[in-house]
Amino acid sequence: MMESKESKHQNLDKVFVYGTLQSGQSRNYILSGLKFEKATLMNFRKKEPPDLGFPFIVRDNNSEVTGEIYYEVSNSLINQLDLIEGEGKLYHRVIVKVQLDSGKELKAFTYYPSEILIKNYI
Fold first, then answer.
1. Domain span at residue 38?
2. pTM above 0.70?
3. Which residues pair with 116 in a beta bridge?
4. pLDDT tens, per residue, the chain with 122 residues
């Protein structure tokens, strides 16, 4: 499931990350101090082109992407993430449904690649 960010979720404060924003990765300092837990995004596959230097996800009904969901992400931090991720150019911030290890499902923002990124690396 993937929705436009323009829907009724204007006050959504969760972000699912699967690459450089995960704990232990190069950009995780941006999310330091926030509560997070492991989560899985169903029906997507992670691509990691070696010459790109960072991953992206694409739809794939036979795959899943493991990552982390961060809680209580402020609007100002979401705006900062938008700048870092090139929202609107390199990535689009979308709403997805992720599954926790407990089986509970939550909606969260994540970053989905732009058409240009997909076309150049798939």
1. 2-73+99-121
2. yes
3. none
4. 556 554 445 689 999 999 999 999 999 999 999 999 999 999 999 999 988 889 999 999 999 999 999 999 999 999 999 999 999 999 999 999 999 999 999 999 999 999 988 998 87
